[in-house]
Specification:
- The protein has about 290 residues and is α/β, with parallel strands linked by helices.
- The chain has a single domain, classed as Aldolase class I (TIM Barrel), CATH 3.20.20.70.
- The chain contains ten helices and 15 strands.
- An eight-stranded mixed β-sheet has the order 13-12-11-8-7-6-1-14, with helices on both faces. Strands 3-9-10 form a three-stranded antiparallel β-sheet.
- A hairpin with a 2-residue loop joins β9 and β10.
- The N and C termini lie far apart (about 35 Å).
């Protein structure tokens, strides 16, 4: 499937697309500690935001869930894995993609990651048949990033402050370049926290654009966890950030704050509750 066809079929890259997407919640762990991140697994939560899932499923069962989802929503053209942990922190995402590709080779495979391990895992990403990749980059300035991220766990060691930021930013940029060189469509997400990185968005867009990112998505902060007292971005602040970013990379404007177990058409009915009924696991970890 070529780039033009993927863009036409992927609802995140084509606002006019009538196709749907399915998120597979298989990733149990994360390797960075974002100050705004509050993961929720289990319960009857109906929150509409990233990092939230009704359950975790076994990677080897992923294709069975896809088959069930296609019965509810045959318009699904994309199967994505966006958590609820990071897709590269464990091998769960790759195991799931292998089982899905074997039975549904024509579906677009999409992955989201914080990018910390992307350079060293790029071979696995390529072999999994992933066509579109999203990398979350919240700052390219060490001082700003340290206000958004408490630290990382990298090769078994915890790093904090600017040391952590140096590793993370370096790996994100290198990973984006490698993914683009491999022919993937790369989207970059940035969480907009106006009091922290509000004046920094254009700088991020410039750097990721230089690395080859195809499209840029600005996600308004949902105040929670350690940033629960931060203000919600206003419409004018979001628009100003988008305008500044567009000088360097095309901007994505129809993000739905999708859950890690979302199923269906963007803005339409969500079939996640119907498909993911049985909870396999209910724990989450960093590291």
């Amino acid at each position: 499937m070529d780039v033009k066809e993927i863009k036409n079929l992927h609802p995140c890259f084509n606002r006019e697309s009538k196709k749907g997407r399915m998120h597979i919640p298989v990733c149990p762990a994360c390797n960075i500690m974002c100050r705004f991140c509050d993961r929720v697994i289990g319960g009857d939560s109906e929150e509409i935001r990233p990092g939230v899932s009704r359950s975790l499923i076994l990677p080897e069962k992923a294709a069975d869930y896809v088959a069930d989802a296609l019965k509810c929503c045959p318009e699904i053209s994309v199967v994505g894995i966006a958590g609820p942990g990071d897709t590269l922190a464990t091998d769960h995402a790759f195991r799931a993609f292998r089982s899905i590709h074997e039975r549904f080779p024509d579906l677009i495979k999409c992955m989201s990651t914080n990018g910390l391990l992307l350079p060293e895992k790029i071979g696995d990403v390529i072999s999994a048949g992933i066509g579109t990749l999203t990398v979350t980059v919240n700052a390219v300035d060490l001082r700003i990033l340290s206000q958004l991220n408490d630290g990382i766990v990298y090769h078994g060691k915890r790093y904090e402050g600017e040391e952590a930021g140096l590793i993370l930013i370096r790996n994100q940029m290198e990973g984006i370049r490698l993914a683009v060189a491999a022919g993937m469509i790369v989207k970059v997400n940035t969480v907009l926290a106006p009091a922290i990185n509000g004046d920094h968005i254009a700088s991020i867009a410039k750097q990721v654009g230089k690395a080859g990112a195809n499209i840029y998505n600005i996600i308004p902060l949902i105040p929670q966890h350690k940033l629960r007292d931060q203000p919600i971005p206003t419409c004018s602040e979001i628009d100003e950030a988008r305008v500044g970013a567009e000088a360097y990379v095309p901007v994505f404007r129809h993000c739905q704050h999708c859950r890690a177990d979302a199923i269906g058409l963007l803005g339409g009915s969500d079939f996640g509750g119907r498909i993911y009924q049985n909870r396999i696991a209910d724990t989450f970890s960093h590291g």
